[in-house]
User: Fold these one by one.
Assistant:
Number 1:
Amino acid sequence: MKFFVSRLAWVFLLACVFAAFHHTEQSLYGQPRTPATSPSPNQTQDKTAPSSATQQQGGSEREKRAQAYAKLLEGQRYLSELRRAGTSEVLRLAREAFQQAATLDPKLSEAHTALAEIAFYYPPQDLDTATREGTNATRINPDNFGAHHILARVYTLKSGLRESKLNRSFAELAIKELKDVARLDPNNGEAWALLGELYHLSGKPQDALDAWTKWSAAPASSEGRFFQYITSRELSPDAAAARLGEGLLAAGRAPEALSAIRRAIALNPENKEYGELLAQALETGGIDDKVAIADLQRMVAADPKNVATAELLARIQFRAGRVDEATATLRAAIARQPKGDREHQMLRSSLAQLYLDALRYADAVAVYEEQLKELGIGDAPLTTDDERLVATRLLQRIIEVYKKAGRSNDVAATIERMRRMLGKDDPTPDAQHIGFLRDQGKKSEALQAIRAARQRYPDQTAFLRLEAQTLADLGRVEEGVALLRTLLKGTVEDFNEHLAISGLYLQSARATDAVVAARKALELAPAERPDMIEAALITLSSAQERAGDPKGSEESLRRILAADPDNATALNNLGYFLIERNERLPEALEMIQRAVRANPTNSSFLDSLGWAYFKLGKLDLAERHLTEAARRNASSVAIHEHLGDLYQRLGKLELARTAWQKALSLVNEPVDVARIKSKLSGKTQ
């Protein structure tokens, strides 16, 4: 029960007054009072005086109201007892008392509120009764805070907010009731916090930010259990500031986000998640690198063993062009970790990646070789599974470095080294060799190598899928599809095969067939597997776009975003499709920016962002993001073609030809080949 104290005092006073009046009338006279004498017929009667019947009726109503208030207080006493150490019998008595109060005075909204609270809080929970009684209370008194509070919680439970599966009808009802709670109590943190979450899941980011802003300004609340149950978050002031920071960060308002997150850290400096959130805000951009570096240096000094903070500091130092400082930061962090443990190895990998991004290929290889040496792994055959696992991972990374450096002989030598170390029964060296041939555009040689590998490793279906992919690369898509169809079993496991078939058709410009295959995959995706549904819808949307159905493509992606408004892949793809069609460019840019903020190292997202800036004429920003995308993915046709288009626009014609030539070496489809050749011949200039 959550009545206002002043309201209870008023109720108690009225109950005492009416009870005293009722007691006096009965105890003095034993019956209602009547006049001592009746007026004679000739006597003029005062028409304004109440009749005896009216007096009796008024007295009866007052008595009922007094009895109702008495029952209300009786129910309240039972509830107090119930909270201390009550039984089911006490609960029954409380419920009966409130029911009698509501019967005696149908306009007593507090009785309905109490019944709603009993139905909601005490077993067996009855949400329907809570809804009915709460609605009755608000119908009687639109300003009944307790009733609005109960209804808000009931509808929030039914809204699907806890499961992140929004029921829009109940979400709208919850929002309506929460707004009434906030109207009656503007400092109610729970109301603003829940409103923010519901708006966020409903795809209304600005409304969510407004609600979280008011939550962060509200005083601390002692009632955080319901909010924690629904959201798995605290209802504390620091949690409010952090949630506001998250929202501002997602909206691209990094400086404001940084301010909110710093407040969260000041309120609760022990919370490591806030430190990670601060790091994310600093990495996202929109904040001067010097400021970000200074903040992170303070964080590293305060917690020297925090690997994530050290890695982020190094990344931002690298972004600012301070490569030597970045490597020094990582080496210092490596020195603080025990050799061989997980954090030590992670930092070594980050250092190698930093060298790779700086095009210091020899330094990157040296880091990986140091790791192998520390683990006692050389060139000799390996005897344990753990050694094979580690060696495979590190040698694969060395191969990737040599590929990016264009050192083909070293790639081949490392593959042979891997073969010696892992033995003839391990298919990994063959897979690496095949991948290398495909990267070089040697598709026929790759096909021969795949078929030889399938004979050596008949149980490895990965080679069958790789053969299907290579056949499609060679323009023999139906042969590839036929291979994949041999894996179909007529069960839900066929999901992956139908998705792969759709991919083959898509890369072969058979978009209509790709749509059919993607729909088959979608039909097989279980309702309880949102990851499978998402994968099918992503593929379907791409196929629909290629098939000339932009509306269907957008609907497929919107379906993903309805369930997950922050889905980075859906945001990126929808934004890119809009950019390609030159439609709603500001909206498209905002979507892609959100995707990049969620995953700032994804080469596809960076390419989309660079291409969006190109379309908008912001060529400096376009170059920054497209070159970063190319550095992270050297085998993407789209990235190199976009980079060539950008260099042409900038007048850097030699760089443009180099980028287009690289794209041409990777392309498969005749229409794409013709387009890129046209650019190289100068016919598009």
Number 2:
Amino acid sequence: MRHVKNPPNPFSKYSAEYIGEPPPTKLEIFEETAPKKMITKAFAFDWEGGWRYTVNCYRGCIHGCTYCFARRYHEFLGYGAGTDFETKIVVKPNAPVILREELKKTRQKMPHVDFSFATDPYLPLEASYELTRKCLEVCADFNVPVGVITKSPLVTRDIDVLQRLDNVSVFFSLPFLTKEKSNPFEPYTPVPEARFRAMETIANAGIPVGIGIAPVIPGYNESDIPKLLERAKNSGATRAFMSMLHLDSDSIEQYFVAKMHERLSPTAVTKIVNAMKREGGGELRHRTFKERSTGRTEQW
């Protein structure tokens, strides 16, 4: 059972601290019926060139990855970056209609659209809402190049739509080789083995597929990188990227460190923190794209 745990929201004047054990969390679904637009121009710290266009049919993410940079976006809604991000999920039921109207008004062809930037496009909710699928169909109608990055095998459901796209790639986020290794940091995601099987299914369908080894957590999963790349290649991957852990705000850093102390031994936590500080020049965070891509020490 998860209990409510949120660092103070920097955009709020007030914060609450429970006396005794916090209450258990519960999943809440909110519908945002009239978003102004679906295509967002976002600055991606871990992407060469910086700017990219994204479509997010959901806000928040049930997967609960403790390191996720998108946690801070929930604070803009008045929620917390901790358990609120995992349990207060915003759904945009009109996303396909709004996306279609937006593309109709676009004078120039979209260069590339990513699904997604601030959430996983294949949350469990997608199985019933089918918003990502319908938005992919819209992109196919307008010949929009698409990139998908996900942790979910549910993407295999949409192979027929992905095959309609002239320019498409699917990346599986796979920073850990085993369930035991992934559980402390992404406890509610599909197990790595299921993601590798889905990768193979996508590749066998003739769709370009890759692996995203992100984040690399210093002192924890660097040694897995060669095995992850080998396993991905054997599963049909033809491309890969990696990025070092990026704790994007004070609240994310607080939540990440707190969860490490809950789920890992003191020895393991000390090893990770010391390694992160070595790579971060004495800090837990890496400030630039180059630092997160190449690190600071000879090891990188």
Number 3:
Amino acid sequence: MGEEISRDYHGERLLVVGVLRGAFMVMADLARHISIPVEFDFMAVSSYGSSTKTSGVVRILKDLDEEIADRHVLLVEDIVDSGLTLDYLLRTLRLRNPSSIELATLLLKEGTRQVPVEARYVGFRIAPEFVVGYGLDFDHLYRNQPYVGGLDEHAR
């Protein structure tokens, strides 16, 4: 993904925005593979009602520090699942008039979208199972695992 992003934004000023908390590992590793100069910012959102299901209600807990009007923005997420959170974030950020806004995600869960959300850069497409590790959590645990794996029903 890093090479593709570097080619696509060569000669442009790119702001890479990580969606906290889950995307912090993805963003750090992705940044190491982007060969063009970039700036970074973060947003934190909450949308999970229970530990495994989205509530559908999205709250911005930490907004951007940078203005994005007339800027190229790359939103980095750990996983695209229902699409509800990302749809809200993308609509909210588009109201701020960026030159462009695209989505990069480590994982795109197949067959779970409740709203259409397109990711321009996708690391892996996965089956609709609950996964943890590499930034992804269950009840705030397992983010530190150096891999992504399914979470056994009995561990929940």
